[in-house]
Structure formats: structure tokens, C-alpha cells
Amino acid sequence: MKEVKIESTLYVYESIEELAVDVKELMSKAVEARNKAYAPYSKFNVGAALILDNGEIITGSNQENASYPSGLCAERTAIYYAGAKYPKANIVKMAITAASQNQKTTAPIPPCGACRQAIAEYEVKQEQAIEIYFMGETGSVAKSNSLANLLPLVFDKSKL
Q1: How far is residue 127's CA from residue 1's CA, in Å, rounded to a whole number?
Q2: 66-112: pLDDT as tens digits
Q3: In the β-sheet with 131-135, what is the strand arrangement from edge to edge?
Q4: 131 is annotated as an active-site residue
Q5: Which of 75, 121, 127, 131 does the annotation list as catalytic?
Q6: How far apart are CA 91 and CA 14, in angstroms?
Q7: CA atoms in the 13 A half-sphere facing the CB of 155
Q8: How far apart are CA 20 and CA 96, in angstroms?
Q9: DSSP secondary structure code for residue 154 in this structure
Q10: What global pTM score does this model have?
Q11: Distance (Å, rounded) from C-alpha 144 to C-alpha 80?
């Protein structure tokens, strides 16, 4: 047996004010999307915004359903819409923000496992890393240069 060590690197900004102008604007679009979330069950609103290599910005918010598995997260809403509308475009950066209707969220909130897998699919497909920025409602913002930092043992088409 041998030990295998897996490391991830994230960069943490104290607040949205420390972000580059383009990322700050992308996070602002994610906040706008978060405000359009339909989350009557979880009371947890999430917004995502993507910038594509063609300059288009795509947003998505979580959309819940009384039949819980039938809802869709903000990240996948945005990714799948981008893939459907601009199938040849690459995702360059992604901004995600989450806010609870029950309490203030001040720590960075990363994408869920299903969304990580969806992001991984697009990184593999486009053969290019996606910068991912994520935050709560306020507070610090975390940045990952690639989904590989959030899902280091990715399952992709090479395993099929």
C-alpha cells in the first residue's frame, strides 16, 4: 500500500471589494440571479453567473419543486443554458453566491456535489479550466482556478 496525498488550493478575498472589476461585475450578476431564485422549501437562494469566451454572460438561479429531486441548482441552470444556447463557447469564469432566508451567510459556499460534477464535465469538454468564485450573502470570497480543486478525483468520460 502507498499513501496518496491530494491537495487543493483556494484563494480567499476578504470581501467582494478585493476582486478584479470584471469578477466583481460577474458576482453582481450572480447576486441579481440569486434574488430571482425560487426556493420555498430550502429557503436557500443561490445565484450563478458565467462569462463565456464569446463575451456573453449567462445567469441562473436555483429553482425548487415540491418533488425535491425535480429542482435544479443555480450553477447547473446557468451551465446547461450556456451549453444549449452557445454550444461552441467555453466557460471562462463562474461566480456563485448563496443566501439563506433563515440566517446570514457570511462564509464562502461552494457548489454542491452534483454541480461540481456538471462543472467538471464542461472543464473536460472544453479542455480548459474554469475559474470559480464563490461566496455567501456577504463576507469573504473564495476562488478556485479549476474545478479540480473542488473535486480532485473527478469522474469523467475517460472512465467510461
Answers
A1: 32
A2: 998 889 999 999 999 999 999 999 999 999 999 999 999 999 999 99
A3: 11-13, 141-144, 131-135, 91-100, 44-52, 57-61
A4: no
A5: 75
A6: 25
A7: 7
A8: 15
A9: -
A10: 0.95
A11: 21
